[in-house]
Amino acid sequence: MLRRYGPRLGAAAALSTLYVASEYRAYLELREDAAVEARLPAADDARATRVVRIPRLLNEAEIASVHDLHARAASRLGSAGRNAQNQGPPRASPTWPQPQPAP
């Protein structure tokens, strides 16, 4: 019986090991992202800070194209801002399906 199923079991074990390793890498990336998020200020606090302009980072045409892209895509993107109440992305942005009231 081992001769018959042994290679299949070995292959299954190898594939499951690769899967677990892949999932663990994804978990570590999420943990790193969460650590970065924890250091960010709430959106309301960030908006209250002074804007810093980096000279010559973008020229005027590039800045205008960023504003144009925002104007065209804002209705489809929703919001990922954080505030003092939720400290995480809002779950009810215009692009997310809204729960329907029970009849």
Describe the protein's architecture and organization:
With 103 residues, the chain is mostly helical. It has helices spanning 2-39, 43-47, 60-77. It has a domain at 2-71.
Question: How would you summarize the topology of this molecule?
Answer:
Elements lengths: L1 H38 L3 H5 L12 H18 L26
Largest sheet: none
Structural class: mainly alpha
* Rg for CA atoms: 24 Å
Tell me the number of strands.
Answer: 0
Uncertain residue ranges: 92-96
Helix coverage percent of residues?
55-70%
**Element-by-element helix/strand order:** HHH
For the structure shown, list the relevant keywords.
103 residues; mainly alpha; elongated
Structure at a glance:
This protein has helices spanning 2-39, 43-47, 60-77. With 103 residues, it is mainly α.
